[in-house]
Amino acid sequence: AYSAYTSLMLNTGAFFGMLTFSKIAQVLGRRQALALSFVTSAVSIASVFWFLKSPSQIWWLIPIQGFCQLSVFACYAIYLPELFPTRLRSTGTSFCYNVGRYIAAIGPVVLGLLTSRVYADYAAPLNYRYAGVTMCMIFAIGLILLPFAPETKDKPLPE
User: Fold this and answer.
1) Residue 1 has pLDDT above 80, yes or no
2) What DSSP state is assigned to residue 66?
């Protein structure tokens, strides 16, 4: 039953996060909005892995995580199409989206290795908590690469 509640709370937070991300991207620009999303995602995910200890916390921790973590998905509709000329817009957006899926597919393997090898000396749930917090470092890679991404705010779509 709690998995259904968790999914509902995560997606409720995601809905409001995506609406908010869209507005932030319009005001601050795409790169600053992405940077904000990366930082808040890392903090919220680490908080859930570290502090979630009872089912009652699902009702407030998980919507915050959904808001922060999944708000970045609004960028697929805003930022990615702005990067490509009309003839490649759909293909370029799809390529970026699906490359991300392939990269994300290694996440469960990394989590398994972290819990069973790197943090194996820690009893559950500490090994999972440490592994989850460690995996939040992926957002640091995003922050490092972000300055190399073009800013598309207030620029015409490439033809």
Assistant:
1) no
2) H
pLDDT in tens, 22-65: 999 999 999 999 999 999 999 999 999 999 999 999 999 999 99
Which tokens go with 2? Answer: 């709690």
Q: Indicate whether 159 belongs to any domain.
A: no
Q: What are the angstrom distances between the C-alpha of 110 and each of 93, 117, 118, 134?
A: 27, 10, 10, 10
Strand intervals (E) in the chain: none
Percent of the chain residues topping a pLDDT of 90: 94
CATH number (domain holding residue 21) = 1.20.1250.20
Geometric angle at alpha carbon 69, from 64 and 107, rounded to 5°: 130
Residue 155 forms part of a structural domain? no
Q: Are 73 and 14 in contact (CB under 8 A)?
A: yes
The pTM assigned to this predicted structure is 0.91
Nearest to 42 by CA among 112, 134, 146, 147: 134
Phi, psi at 120, each rounded to 5°: -65, -25
Report the distance separating Cα 104 and Cα 113, nearest Å.
15
